[in-house]
């Protein structure tokens, strides 16, 4: 009987310390918000459907970056348009690396996205990137990321 009581106590204590969030955090996984890229996160809230615009230009560079502390690594482009060279934030690198459409320096692209100010500079959070006939869809018309729930499919 004492063994059973001890076992129940150990299991109870383990369940307190290994909640899903704790379990995920111990393994370096951001539990809530899709690694910070989701709509409810501080970064995700920067996307504003009222500031959506379309711009065209040439990709100058493709870079990895982490927009905010605690977020998964992402990919952004530097795109030279007729008016400016602007950072275009695409999304988390784990999602983009699993897409058929690959964007590279020198590509001519058309980007639809929300213009924001990021770290004091103009930037665009992309909803869609067109490269020739290919379309890389990243967010819906409300800015909801297409990668939300993607890993579960």
Describe the strand arrangement of the main beta sheet, using strand numbers: 1-2-3-5-4
Total domain count? 2
Q: Which radius of gyration do the C-alpha atoms yield?
A: 20 Å
Please tally the helical runs, counting DSSP H or I stretches of 4 or more residues. Answer: 3
How many angstroms separate the termini? 45 Å
Q: Provide the succession of SSEs.
A: HHEEEHEEE
Briefly note the structural class of the backbone.
alpha+beta
By CATH, the topology of the largest domain is OB fold (Dihydrolipoamide Acetyltransferase, E2P)
Return the average pLDDT rounded to an integer.
81
- What form results from the Cα inertia axes? elongated
Features:
elongated; OB fold (Dihydrolipoamide Acetyltransferase, E2P); 2 domains; 153 residues; 5-stranded mixed barrel
Summarize this, please?
With 153 residues, this protein is α+β, with helices and mostly antiparallel strands. Helices cover 18% and strands 36% of the residues. The chain has two domains: 1-31; 44-152, Nucleic acid-binding proteins (OB fold (Dihydrolipoamide Acetyltransferase, E2P), Beta Barrel).
């Amino acid at each position: 009987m004492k063994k059973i009581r001890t076992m129940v106590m150990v299991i109870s204590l383990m369940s307190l310390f290994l909640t899903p969030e704790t379990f995920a955090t111990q393994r370096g996984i951001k539990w809530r918000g899709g690694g910070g890229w989701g709509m409810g996160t501080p970064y995700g809230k920067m996307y504003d459907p009222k500031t959506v615009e379309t711009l065209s230009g040439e990709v100058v560079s493709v870079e990895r970056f982490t927009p905010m502390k605690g977020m998964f690594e992402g990919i952004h482009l530097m795109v030279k348009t007729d008016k400016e060279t602007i950072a275009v934030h695409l999304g988390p690198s784990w999602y983009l690396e699993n897409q058929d459409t690959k964007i590279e320096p020198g590509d001519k692209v058309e980007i639809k996205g929300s213009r924001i100010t990021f770290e004091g500079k103009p930037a665009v959070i992309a909803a869609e990137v067109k490269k020739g006939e290919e379309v890389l869809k990243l967010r819906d018309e409300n800015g909801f990321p297409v990668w939300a729930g993607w890993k579960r499919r």
